[in-house]
From TrEMBL:
Residue ranges annotated for the N-sulphoglucosamine sulphohydrolase C-terminal domain, each copy included: 2-51
Gene3D superfamilies for this protein: Alkaline Phosphatase, subunit A
Organism this protein belongs to: Paraglaciecola aquimarina
Lineage: Bacteria, Pseudomonadati, Pseudomonadota, Gammaproteobacteria, Alteromonadales
Organism domain of life: Bacteria
Protein name from the UniProt record: DUF4976 domain-containing protein
UniProt xrefs under Pfam families: SGSH_C (PF16347)
Length: 83
């Protein structure tokens, strides 16, 4: 998820996230994901990502909906990828 100021990446299959301040760190050298000061930004961008995924999933064709590998598994306790 990207805004003018922030770039949030959730590698959910690898349980790894990144947050970069594109204004102050355009080379994306400092990952702010563990910064207590930025947790509200992470929450906002994560929620926005979930909303986008829900919107996308609702708009998919019936054929694509049958592909379970497209199901949002970002917050599942034990995600089953590609099944």
């Amino acid at each position: 998820m990207r805004t003018e100021k922030w770039k949030y990446v959730d590698f959910y299959k690898n349980d790894f996230q990144q947050l970069f301040d594109l204004e102050n760190d355009p080379q994306e050298a400092v990952n702010l994901i563990d910064s207590p000061k930025h947790q509200h930004i992470i929450k906002q961008l994560s929620d926005k990502t979930d909303s986008y995924i829900q919107q996308y999933e609702a708009a998919r064709s019936d054929e694509v909906k049958q592909r379970s590998s497209f199901i949002n598994v970002r917050h599942q306790t034990s995600p089953q990828y590609g099944k």
